Amino acid sequence: MESPLAVRIRWISFVALGLLVILALGAWGYHWYSGRSAQIRTASTLNVVRSEIARWTTVHGRFPAAGELIEALGPGFGFSDAWGHKLVYSANGDYVLVALGRDGQLDVDSIEVYRRRGLERENGAEDCRGDFDRDMVVVDGRFIQFGGK
């Protein structure tokens, strides 16, 4: 028969282990939720920029240069994703708009890779929801990699 002290120690150990598991799951959940929230905010930002590019193109008959786009969006628009990384924009007969994701790194060797993928892709966007380091990419007004809702 176990002593009362041994029973108490074992009981306290189980409670402590349970609390650690709950804390770990909570930390993971918070991390995932905050990353997902940033992805959704970034997708919203890309939609604002897409709308401004469409408006500009309708008025001027061409895609705006980067400086013109930033000026058209106004001084209060930071032209960055929810993680604080500047958006990447290139217009050359078509346009590519990239949000770099949490890691702030372009996932391909060159933005031209996305331009080619956008021209080749006929179906909807590749879903990168929950993968916070993945780029979100718009080519000619269509998402080819999307992490929003």
What does it look like?
This protein is of the alpha+beta class and 149 residues long. Helix content is 50%, strand content 13%. A five-stranded mixed beta sheet has the order 1-2-4-5-3, sandwiched between helices. A hairpin with a 2-residue loop joins β4 (136-139) and β5. The relative contact order is 0.15. The mean pLDDT is 81.
How much helix, percentage-wise, in residues?
40-55%
Q: What fraction of residues sit in β-strands?
A: 5-15%
Approximate shape: elongated
Task: Identify low-pLDDT runs.
Answer: none
Mean pLDDT: 81
Biggest sheet, spatial arrangement of strands: 1-2-4-5-3
Rg computed from alpha carbons, rounded to a whole number of angstroms: 23 Å
User: Distance between the terminal alpha carbons, to the nearest Å?
Assistant: 58 Å
Spell out the helices and strands N to C.
Answer: HHEEHEEE
Strand tally: 5
Number of helices: 3
Largest sheet: 5 strands, mixed
Counting helices, strands and paired strands, the structural category is alpha+beta
Helix-strand blueprint:
Layout: H1 4-60, H2 66-73, E1 88-91, E2 95-99, H3 111-120, E3 126-127, E4 136-139, E5 142-146
Parallel strand pairs: 3-5
Antiparallel strand pairs: 1-2, 2-4, 4-5
